[in-house]
Design goal:
The protein contains 11 helices and 10 strands. It is α/β, with parallel strands linked by helices. The chain folds into 2 domains: 82 residues, Orthogonal Bundle (Arc Repressor Mutant, subunit A); 208 residues, D-Maltodextrin-Binding Protein, domain 2 (3-Layer(aba) Sandwich). A 6-stranded mixed beta sheet has the order 4-3-5-10-6-9. Helix 1 packs across helix 2 and helix 1 packs across helix 3.
Amino acid sequence: MFKDLPPLNALRAFESAARHLSFTLAGKELFVTHGAVSKQIKILETYLGLPLFIRLHRQLILTDEGQRYLPHVQTALQSLNNATYDLKNQPLLTQTLSINVLPSLSISWLIPRIEEFKSQYPHLFVDLSIGDFPVDLTKQKYDIAIRSMTTPPKSMKVIELMDEDLCLVCSPTLAKKLKHVDDINKMTLLKHTTRPELWETWAEAVGVKLTANKNFAVEHFYMLSQAAASGIGMALIPRFFIEKELKEGSLVLPFTETFTSPYRYYILTSNTKQLALKTQVFIDWLLALFSDYRNKPHH
């Protein structure tokens, strides 16, 4: 293929010299000496087996062959230049990164921070959806899913994101009515409908006997936090989810008991040999985002 292609530097020298009809001006344009241009022209003429210029005293004239050759060389060099410019300067081809995330994780963490990721990877279009249904990445077109569970699936690649450190929280007004942790039995216990056993598991871990008979159930941690901040009752909510509320004081920690639930958060990807680059960069970004929760105990 391309067995008759001449040296590129010789073509550039010829095009410039032919356009200027001067080896000196061509040298200035190409940032080389008059002699270097002359040498490249000689290389090209030897390669072609015919002269391209008639060299007169203080004058350079194209031969008939040179005149025929010049427009083809210019077209080829321009085409190569344009293709190279486009490749160097066009943004990376837009790719879609499809992510399905638990509602609580999306609301409290990803949506406020996703602009940071997008600014680092502007060529990625992030398609973020929420769900807490079972994931089957062989049928669903997600690149990444994030779920909390007690046992990770074996049919997918699994990366542990963090433990679930639950905080016992309530409104400041409700906290004033609590003297001892057993006093929560006088309050309404806000339950997570998909985690109905959490209060019992928590009580056993911290040594509290549950006798409360007032319950109020909601579906997501976001709803739990809103209900607790409204003074409806006590809630067990992951610390990462309520940092803003704790800082602002709409939720408080009435007691110091800590509890890590049986649930953990996992990043799930398809069980392929190698992850796509777009998937890997998001996972790396996410792990860095949650590094504090992965590496530091919370009290």
